[in-house]
């Protein structure tokens, strides 16, 4: 006798997202990092309610969806800071922050230094590695 649970998409045994839903959510986030992302849209893509999705996402990743998005935006900003000559304003908009002030605040909170200091330190370190 077949069990209904075999066929229905399920959460993982720990209450988190199943691997397919986790992949869908993360791919959607990363593909739209520079855009405004509504948790309701992520939940809809995973066929879950907003609250259920938020709980399951946190259970799976250890972070709320908003915090995970923020970390991905900061990571992308760090990549752009070290690999481009874009201004911090351009980088902040490219990474989905509403303005440079908010970007600087979130970056400083995450990295312990403001983006300009971080850029100066990493460009100096990059030049030292190249010169060696």
UniProtKB/TrEMBL annotation:
<dbReference type="GO" id="GO:0009893">
    <property type="term" value="P:positive regulation of metabolic process"/>
</dbReference>
<dbReference type="InterPro" id="IPR018060">
    <property type="entry name" value="HTH_AraC"/>
</dbReference>
<dbReference type="GO" id="GO:0043565">
    <property type="term" value="F:sequence-specific DNA binding"/>
</dbReference>
<dbReference type="GO" id="GO:0003700">
    <property type="term" value="F:DNA-binding transcription factor activity"/>
</dbReference>
<dbReference type="InterPro" id="IPR009057">
    <property type="entry name" value="Homeodomain-like_sf"/>
</dbReference>
<dbReference type="Pfam" id="PF12833">
    <property type="entry name" value="HTH_18"/>
</dbReference>
<feature type="domain" description="HTH araC/xylS-type">
    <location>
        <begin position="23"/>
        <end position="121"/>
    </location>
</feature>
<keyword id="KW-0805">Transcription regulation</keyword>
<dbReference type="InterPro" id="IPR018062">
    <property type="entry name" value="HTH_AraC-typ_CS"/>
</dbReference>
<protein>
    <submittedName>
        <fullName>AraC family transcriptional regulator</fullName>
    </submittedName>
</protein>
<dbReference type="InterPro" id="IPR050204">
    <property type="entry name" value="AraC_XylS_family_regulators"/>
</dbReference>
<comment type="function">
    <text>Regulatory protein of the TOL plasmid xyl operons. XylS activates the xylXYZLTEGFJQKIH operon required for the degradation of toluene, m-xylene and p-xylene.</text>
</comment>
<keyword id="KW-0238">DNA-binding</keyword>
<keyword id="KW-0804">Transcription</keyword>
<dbReference type="GO" id="GO:0005737">
    <property type="term" value="C:cytoplasm"/>
</dbReference>
């Amino acid at each position: 006798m077949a069990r209904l649970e075999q066929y229905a998409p399920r959460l993982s045994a720990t209450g988190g997202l199943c691997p397919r839903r986790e992949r869908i959510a993360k791919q959607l986030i990363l593909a739209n990092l520079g855009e405004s992302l509504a948790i309701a849209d992520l939940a809809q893509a995973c066929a879950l309610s907003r609250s259920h999705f938020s709980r399951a996402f946190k259970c799976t990743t250890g972070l709320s969806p908003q915090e995970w998005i923020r970390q991905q935006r900061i990571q992308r900003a760090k990549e752009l800071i070290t690999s481009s000559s874009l201004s911090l304003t351009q980088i902040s908009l490219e990474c989905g922050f509403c303005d440079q002030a908010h970007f600087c605040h979130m970056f400083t909170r995450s990295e312990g230094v403001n983006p300009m200091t971080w850029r100066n330190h990493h460009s100096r370190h990059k030049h030292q590695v190249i010169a060696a």
